[in-house]
Amino acid sequence: MRGLSAGRVCLALLATLLGTCRLAEGGCQGKCCPGTDRSCTATDWRMDRVYGTCYCDDTCQRTKDCCFDHPTVCPAQSCVVSQWSHWSGCAEKCRPAMRVRRRQVEQQARNSPDICPPLEERAGCMDYLGHQGAHCTPTRGPALITAAEYGAGRPKYDLYGEPLDPGYCVEFKMESLSPHCTVENRHHTRWMQYLREGYTVCVACQPPAMRNHSRGCQGDGTASDRDTLLQWQAVGNPRCRGTWKRLQRQERCACPQVHSFVFI
User: Fold this and answer.
1) Which of 3, 110, 175, 204 has the smallest number of CB atoms closer than 10 Å to its CB?
2) For residue 219, what is the DSSP state?
3) Is the Cβ–Cβ distance between 168 and 229 less than 8 Å?
4) For residues 43 and 41, what is the distance between their CA atoms, to the nearest angstrom?
5) Distance from first CA to last CA of the chain, Å, rounded?
């Protein structure tokens, strides 16, 4: 009996020092619970080397009260998602609209408090071909702009494989903008947070936004002097709008990575 008692004391000491010894009926074996489940408990050594009630749910890593064997018995698995689909077409033709792309969950997160990333993205766009196939570039109204990344998806060659006009860039000084630009936090509108009063922005004019007959983009200020206040509007959030003044035109675009946009 004395030998048995001494053995139990030894086991308890080892668990305290190393955190690797389980008492009968303890630990997370067979008790890995998804999400937050405060009934998913055991009586055993915790990871902070305190003996008592410990937890085996996904959030115990965050609350720091997991049973000592939780990392090995319930290993964390991150959410795995597929690649993005191709962008859809614009929801409407010949006017500012929205496009969408999606991805799917391939493996749900397990034994982890992390959640899956967004499965859908939206972005402003404009389709320049009408229902009859006619070109319909707008000729009046404010300059319509969106994130510079939108230009990366534009065609660089025509139907015959000939390179399209690379376009040009225009620098503007931002004079004013509505408060709706800075409070937006949806994924497809975060680029609008780079719009700031007093900043110099660079906007690219590229096909198909470039009009064939004038080789210009709507609202680029070609016919205006430096003191003329011009109107602009963000595609994707029509309440984000403001004024700017044209500074100069770059025949070869050299826009910085931030504060760069495209006419749409």
Assistant:
1) 3
2) T
3) no
4) 7
5) 86
pLDDT bucket at 8, cuts 50 / 70 / 90: very low
* The dihedral sign for the CA sequence 21, 23, 29, 35: negative
**Neighbouring residues of 8: CB distance < 8 A, sequence distance ≥ 6:** none
The pairing of beta strand 105-107 with beta strand 168-177: unpaired
CA distance 136 to 208: 10
Q: Evaluate whether 68 touches 43 at the Cβ level (below 8 Å).
A: no
Strand pairing report for 105-107 and 143-147: unpaired
Nearest-angstrom CA–CA distance, 216 and 139? 10
Instruction: Map residue 251 onto helix, strand or coil.
Output: coil
Helix, coil or strand: residue 10: helix
pLDDT of 199 strictly over 90 = yes
CA distance 167 to 148: 14
Region 109-130: what's the mean pLDDT? 81
Cα dihedral across residues 180, 183, 188, 194: positive or negative: positive
Residue 151: helix, strand or coil by DSSP? Answer: helix
pTM: 0.62
Q: Which long-range contacts (CB under 8 A, 24 or more apart) does 21-25 make?
A: 21/45, 22/68, 22/69
